[in-house]
Amino acid sequence: MPQKQHVYKLVSSISPEDVFRILKRVCEHENQTEFEPEFEFDWIGRKIVISATSGEGLTRCREHFLRLLQKEGADADGMLPGKVVTQDDRYSQPFGILLQDAATFGELIGRSLVDIGLRGIQVVDSSDACKISIRLVGAAKTIDYSEFLQEFPLPTYIKLIDEGIHEVEDARKPSSKSLKKKRKKR
What we know:
This protein is of the alpha+beta class. It has helices at residues 16-28, 55-71, 102-115, 145-150, 176-185, and strands at residues 2-12, 38-42, 47-52, 79-81, 85-87, 90-97, 121-125, 130-135, 158-169. The strands form two sheets. Strands 2, 3, 4, 5 and 6 form a five-stranded antiparallel beta sheet that branches. A four-stranded antiparallel beta sheet has the order 7-8-1-9, covered by helices on one side. Helix 1 crosses helix 2.
């Protein structure tokens, strides 16, 4: 028997690949080459290090990097700058990566929906988005989850898209047709 579910999609305007591309672009930019910029990138470890041969070069690279991040739609607070360090005639600055992917926020939203009393929540991550499905049964018919989702505090680089209500087969209970087919096969 088909059931209705409300589907939302979370999309991030910036990905690890985007951050890597921006770092590469900054370090290969013709205005920066005299400073011999380099970078280290560890998305899983949530860390970036930018280095250059002078303090001025590091400042220019850092500002260029942060400006390009903002152009991509990331929050200004998406990177947590660390202390500038000088070692072997190079100036380095680490950054903690505060940017999160859509799946992280999908899990937070899914848990929050369960906390307010909803059941039948499904969060599915894919390479380009995260889908949240809410089965329209029980409390979902009475709780205003839509307003809750619209007010959920998301960073500017994560967008919540309402994909509407869809009918799907209930995967938990086989339909009577599928039971009849199984009995005939025996």
